[in-house]
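chain below, 83 aa
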Amino acid sequence: MSLFLAWIGVDRDSLDLEGEICALNPRLFLVETELSRSKLYHRIKWQLPDDTALLVAPLAEIPKFKGMAEGSTAWARERKRTD
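prediction:
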């Protein structure tokens, strides 16, 4: 399983993906999946309106963040332990 950060240029309540998803806010998601970065990128891209901005990046460690959806830090820590 790999952990990715996905940002999309439009607000979304959810995405239809393989794996576990944690919405940090309506445009920013953590995704734990067995999909490759390319497959995840294209799966999200196909769900969005044409010309919508999209970023998908692998995460080697849990990023530092605050002000995101309640429970999102705990969700991330459950999936990837860091020092």
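The two ends are 19 Å apart (CA to CA). The chain has a mean pLDDT of 88.
thats it, cya
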